[in-house]
Amino acid sequence: MDAAQYIRRHHRHNPGRQQCASAVVKHITAPVDIVWSLVRRFDQPQNYKPFVSRCTMRGDLNIGSVREVDVKSGLPATTSTERLERLDDTEHILSVKIVGGDHRLKNYSSILTVHPEVTEGRSGTLVIESFVVDIPNGNTKDETCYFVKALINCNLKSLSDISERMAVQDKI
Q: How confident is the model at residue 12 (pLDDT cuts 50, 70, 90)?
């Protein structure tokens, strides 16, 4: 399957009139098990998300669990409260909904999937993260999507760097 087929299958969002939705695709030169081991840790987003300084869990790692995330300075936020909507270790799907915090990402929901792929004979991973979010007053749909996609691109670049480093260390 290609990215478009995965998006149609796993990344269904129904944006309202005052919402934007989009998806970001990243190819990572590391096996899917390494990438998934980082992504699936709902309780430790700081392991690959550069803007997260700390995470405190309320509950265990079951559907409905909530995490309180402290955001590093430089972003227009300091905290985010997020609920685990789906964690599927077979299909490699993580879905999170933001339920509070001091930021402008209202009604934000994301789906992140990881898929094995082979590139140039090497084991790799296709990562897709899609989202839907309200468009804040005073912003356009394009501005909102651009901002969220920039954050996701940063997170996925970091995920790629860390996963690829881990893959190299596994070969040593």
A: confident
